[in-house]
Every structure is written in C-alpha cells, then in structure tokens.
Design a protein that fits this description.
Blueprint: H1 2-18, E1 44-51, H2 55-62, H3 64-75, E2 79-81, E3 86-92, E4 97-102, E5 105-122, E6 125-132, E7 142-154, E8 160-173, H4 185-208, H5 214-224, E9 228-231, E10 236-239, E11 242-253, E12 256-265, E13 268-271, E14 294-303, H6 304-315, E15 319-321, E16 326-337, E17 340-349, E18 353-364, E19 369-379, H7 384-404, E20 406-408, H8 410-423, E21 426-427, E22 431-447, E23 451-466
Helix pairs in contact: 1-6, 1-8
Length: 473
C-alpha cells in the first residue's frame, strides 16, 4: 500500500505545486491532530456483522422429533380429529436429521418414520378400528419429511432472539391403514405439523440462551478503537473513533445468518507515533441505524518553508510570450490571504516585475480539475515603466495566469483512492475489515503564516465481518 500511496502523492505533488498547492501526506509534509469525538468531525457509519452460532441451535432443533417421540411413547394419548368423530395415536422413530443455513435463516430438516392407530368413538368409548406401521418397531412403514425454519431478530443488550415455524411437512412414504387400505400419511402430516408448532415457542426460548454474541461484539468494539496503521513509511494512522451502535438487522454472511450492528464513528487520520486508544465501554445499542456512508477528512499542515520550496521547484523557469516580449518566473513565495491563496511571483524578461497574485481555489468534480476563480494581481513596484506595463499588459497577463491555474487531477485522485482503499481492507484480530472509497476530493486550501493547510475528503463504505468462530472464543 505504501508504494501505491507514495506514487499517487508524488504525481499529485508535481501537479498541485504548479497551482500553489501541495498534495496530502508526504514524509516532509504530513501532520494532523486527533479529533476524537469532537463536534468538528463528520459522523460516519459502518456496519459490523457477527455470525450467529448455529451449531448448538441445530442440535437443539434437531432434538424436537426425539422429544415428541418420547412424549408419544410414554403418554400414548389419542389425538382428536375433525369434530371429534375420529382419533389418532402415533409413534415415532427418529431417523435422519440435518441442518443448513439459507441466507438469514436456519433450516432444520428431519426424516421421521411413524406408525399410527386410528379409532372412532363407539357407544361412548374410543374403539380402535385400524393401524399401520406399528408392527415394524424398528422403523415404521410411513415416513414424513419435516422442515423447521428459524429466523432471528435483535433484542436489547445485543441479544439475538430465534423465532421458528414449521415450513414444510410432507408424507414421503405411505402408511396404509389395515382393512380400509387408506394412506394415513397426509393425515399424520397435519397432526405432526400441529404438534411441532406447539413446542417451538419453548424451544425458541431455550435457544435464545444459547446465542450469546455480546462478548464477540465487545471484542470487536475494542478492535475498532485501536489505531489502524495505513502507511508504515509515513507513520499514518486511521482512528475510527466509534461512539455508538445500533441494531442493523440480520443478514447472511458467508452463507450463514449474522447479526448486523451499525457503528457511528468520527474517524480521523493522524501522523506520528501510534496514538493511545480511548477504550470506551461498549454502549447499549440504539433501535435504528441509518447508514450515511463512511467519510474521512484528511487535514494536512505543511510548514510554509516546505510549501515554498515545492512551489519554487515547480514554477521557477517557466517562460511564455505575451506578443511584445517574453516573461520568465524566477522566484515564487506563498503568503496568507484569508480564504484565497496568495503568491508573490518575481518575473524577468519584458520588464522586471514582482506580482502579488491572488485566487480562490475550487475543485470541479465534473471536470476533475482544480480551478482558481477570481484571479487577479497587483504589481509591487510602482514606476512609470511598470505603470505603462500595467496599462497595456494587465488583462493579457491576468488571463494567462488564470489559464495556468487550471489543472486536471482526476487521475491522481483515483490513484490515491485505490491506494487508500487497499489500506482499508485488512485482517483484524476478530475478523476482516472491508472498505471501499468511492470518491476522494479536495475540500479546501488555505495559506497561514507558518503553514499551508490542505483538506481532502473521502467518501465510501466500511464494514467489519467477524470470523465464523468469533462468538465461540
């Protein structure tokens, strides 16, 4: 990453110096101040995704059939059918069980062998009139395919609450009632669906106790407060400065359901020794999260001596003709001028002149150029010769300077954007940080007495995908 950033910076340096600018972040230039949680920084949003540990849940939901099988084998109670004219008693033999993740859900599937007894009420008592599958005690003769879908919602204090329902019950093997020869499979499917649905709320409550992700969130929160080194050579650090969290819904992560939490932060970029992290305690999550994107300002404070040296290297020696003679730049010096940029140019050739130039820098996003508006100058020396030159040459010279203060920099900004994006994609102790930088643009520039202040801004997205086992650590 370092090599990419330096290449982009150096290209930007050569261009920006021509228009009295310097690029962000070079070894002699970069400096910044941490603005942790200050109102002057721009709030950013990022998302954290923590995989929900589905392995213990799969085992729990897979035991539903065994639970019902035990109840039926012990109780042997009759199930009333329809209006009470028919009764059914069943027995289960748990067989194949499996579970899969489907996006934001857990699907628990099982194949259930069964046998049934069918009865009617005769003369005030329940009388058995048919059966199927009960003579083969090892497997039964009928079979059901059952699928339970478990969704998840977010509760307080980083709790994840399972909510399950029977999504499908199908008879996959007939069970023919003796004498009548009627298949009991479709009827058994209805009865079994109803029984499973009745026990699911209790199973969900038990499952909620198995889903503990708050320790994982606390670990990630700690990770996000650690300064991130984005350029080792230049000692540049990204401070995410997280301040708040909010529930952001359940989303799939690598094919499994994951709890999403939005993080509100006030990021900053600083240079120098590794800053001391804040270590704020994990806050209670808010109910709603609004993702306004991730953005970071890059403030740069350039010593005025360095800025003048870079400027002189770029502009001294430039020469052009005004028709009546040539003009050559032999010296240049920046000076403060409020919201405008001022530079003193020493010219030789047609006349020895010292110009005090001023202009307002602006970045044209559509054109991808830095422009200087309201460009004008005054002549420092006041002699009859300079007055004559001013009368004849002011407008042509002003227009020439205004034209020269226009510069395409889209390619250079794109190079820096790519380099910064590479630095935002990295492995952390608990997961993977994934960043995109959609835009990098110049915000403002100001010349101070002791320094040149430049501010660039990035716009993009940032997310933290926790490792699959982070909740189990």
């Amino acid at each position: 990453m370092t090599r990419g950033i330096l290449l982009a910076q150096r290209r930007l340096l050569r261009l920006c110096a021509v228009v009295l600018l310097v690029p962000p972040i070079t070894s002699a230039m970069a400096a910044g101040t941490q603005k942790s949680g200050q109102g002057g920084t721009i709030p950013s949003a990022m998302t954290v995704h923590v995989p929900i540990p589905v392995t213990p849940l799969a085992e729990l939901y897979g035991n539903i059939t065994q639970q019902l099988a035990t109840q039926r084998s012990e109780g042997r109670e009759w199930v009333t059918l329809g209006g009470g004219s028919g009764f059914l008693k069943y027995r289960l033999w748990p067989d194949e069980q499996s579970s899969t993740s489907a996006g934001d859900r857990l699907l628990s599937q099982s194949t259930v062998p069964f046998g049934v007894e069918y009865a009617k009420q005769m003369k005030g008592s329940i009388t058995k009139i048919a059966e199927c599958g009960l003579r083969d005690a090892s497997s039964g003769t009928g079979r059901l395919s059952v699928t339970v879908a478990t969704m998840f919602k977010q509760g307080r204090s980083y709790r994840v609450l399972p909510a399950s329902q029977v999504s499908a019950v199908h008879s996959t093997q007939s069970c023919l009632l003796s004498e009548q020869g009627v298949d009991a499979g479709p009827l058994m499917a209805q009865v079994y669906r109803s029984d499973v649905q009745k026990v699911l709320p209790a199973v969900d409550r038990q499952a909620a106790g198995l889903v503990t992700i708050q320790p994982a969130i606390a670990r990630i929160w700690h990770d996000l407060q650690e300064p991130l080194l984005i350029d080792e050579t230049e000692q540049l650090w990204l401070l995410l400065n997280p301040e708040a969290t909010a529930a952001a819904g359940i989303e799939p992560l690598s094919g499994s359901p994951a709890a999403g939490y939005g993080v509100i932060a006030r990021p900053a970029v600083v240079r120098g020794a590794k800053p001391t992290p804040r270590h704020l305690p994990l806050p209670e999550p808010q109910e709603h999260f609004r993702d306004d994107g991730f953005h970071v300002d890059f403030p740069v404070e350039v010593p005025i001596e360095e800025a003048n040296q870079r400027l002189r290297e770029a502009v001294i020696g430039q020469e052009w003709s005004l028709g009546v003679g040539t003009i050559k730049i032999v010296n240049a010096t920046l000076y403060p001028l409020g919201k405008q940029v001022g530079v003193e140019l020493v010219l030789r050739g047609l006349l020895p002149l010292t110009l005090r130039l001023k202009g307002t820098p602006a970045y044209d996003e559509t054109a991808g150029r830095i422009l200087f508006r309201e460009v004008d100058y005054t002549i420092k020396e006041r002699t009859p010769a300079t007055d004559l030159a001013e009368e004849w040459l002011h407008e042509p010279l002003r227009e020439e300077l205004a034209t020269r203060l226009s510069l395409p920099i889209r390619e250079e900004l794109d190079l820096m954007r790519q380099a910064l994006e590479k630095g935002l994609n990295r492995e952390l102790s608990g997961g993977r940080l994934r960043g995109t930088v959609r835009q990098l643009s110049l915000q403002d520039l100001a010349v101070q007495t002791a320094s040149l202040s430049v501010r660039f801004k990035t716009e993009g997205t940032l997310r933290y995908d926790a490792h699959a086992d982070v909740a189990a650590r």
